[in-house]
Amino acid sequence: QNNAVLTEISSAAADREISKLTTMDFFLGLFQDDISDPVAIIDNLEPVLNADSVYVPRSDSDGEATSGKNKRIPIRDCASQGLQDLWKFIKGTSTELRLFLWSRLSDAYGSIQYATKQFSCQLRAIEMVVADFEGDLYLKNPNDTRPVLLLRMMKSLDELLIRALSLALNEQSAYDIVDEVHLKATAAALAKLSCMLHVSASLEDEIRIGMTQAPSGGSVFQAFMNKLREIQVRTWCLQYTVLKIGIIQHTDVFPKYESDLAEYLAAIHNVLGPRKSCKASNKIFLKMMRMELLKLKNIDNWEDYLGQVLYDLHGLKLGVGIWEVQDHGCPPEKLERRNTIQLADKITVLARRMPMKDLLKSELKTTIEHMQGAIGPVRSTPQMVHNLRNYTEYFKRPVHPLRLYQALKGGVELDTVSVNAPETVLANHGWFFLLGSIALSKYKLVDLSKRQTPGAMDDLRIGATFLRHQLQFTPNNWEGWFRLAECFDYEVEDAVVWSADKMNKDRAELVKFQRNSIHCHTLALSKSVGADTDYEEGDPLHDLYHNFAMRFLRL
């Protein structure tokens, strides 16, 4: 009971005073720069900023926490007065303060390597800033100060987009805890942001066609528009990653989701390209689209999508597809070896579809040569040396009739080992076989009378070198052995067709070429047993039997 000295105290007033002290301690702790305990930051900030994700144990009648999965309740249902006051206070604070809090929480998750929660915080911050554009704090701002606030908010959004997009593209677990409600909220926020940013694109269109006069201070205006263009490109890229996750989670609604994703990327490309915006933000959209197109498998006319991307990035033309490539004003950049290896699969598929005579005259051949220049020479490994040494020893053996008979049943084998090297991926896609076939075909198309000119044999020997590389990686490639046998046959033909000097003075070399040809034909015959006989062009299996028979007739 109160006495005369101590007046009556209101419990509500006491709670308010305690709440003020709690709020003050909360912010004093957050603004310290030397905070070294990220778990403490998470425990303090998560209930304040993201209360819907926080659950606490339900207390029983004695005030003790109960255990069990179904005994947890949302913190909103049992929040203390201090926490409720914090929610109310933060709701009315400036965008900058709330961004600071989200940044602290995101950094805390990042410091404990919880990338998906760090990413979620960044998405929530983006949603918050976009929502603030429609809030009273922004709309009721005086007209003379609102542009400054707009620029500050756009700058904050740009920083958030950069960090979020980096995690979305480089961290596989980025979307692990992002549920459907969160995805929809982020997608809606990014769509609103894209609509806002598209106003600048519309203004540029009007200036370009003369509807609107460009403002004075051209360099400053252009720099500002470039920055908005970069933000727009990053927004589109992050929006794609959000929609991709949502679409993959609902394949019943999107049965051909890979085609849908490719069409969506192409639609963005068609918006950015004609406006010369593809090069914005270090070509991040083009690089993302290239990466995605190489991952997606079930796409119709994928060469059209990929062709425009490669032209924008590297100035390369595939020369196939329905659409003509357009100039999007992108300066070509050097093709790196890693990216070239990733492209090899798609390029070899396109090359196989095309007759060799057409391929030799196409832009695709130029692209293939450019890619090989980026790949560079093959680096030998001990396994490759082992295989090549065994091939060389095998070629020195005499031709044995029993081995020829065994080849008809697929019974001729070589002692080879599998090769583990960066170029193995290329060989598995038939890259070196493709290069060898191109070089060999170029030699075949040279007029017989011109084969005696200096350098005429270079294509033949280059082709043989690439075919050997292919066989070092894939010794069971029967077509590789067959084309290598052709190279040896042409060596013999070139040596005897115009002169008898080698027959008289260097017969041993001719015998070696003939023996090598027979051995290669034998291996090709053995490896072809049970092989796939569905070919894009001609019937190489028929050619193998015919050439092998003619080889014996010419002995």
What sort of overall outline do the alpha carbons produce when their principal axes are compared? elongated
DSSP helix count?
24
Low-confidence blocks of residues: 17-21
What percent of residues are in strands? Answer: under 5%
Question: Can you summarize the main beta sheet?
Answer: 2 strands, antiparallel
Order of helices and strands: HHEEHHHHHHHHHHHHHHHHHHHHHH
Q: Averaging pLDDT over every residue, what do you get? A: 87
Query: How helical, in percent, are the residues?
Result: 55-70%
Side-by-side strand order of the widest sheet: 1-2
GO molecular function: nucleosome binding
Function: Has a role in a nucleosome assembly pathway that is required for the integrity of heterochromatin and proper chromosome segregation.
Organism: Verticillium longisporum (Verticillium dahliae var. longisporum)
Protein name: Histone transcription regulator 3 homolog
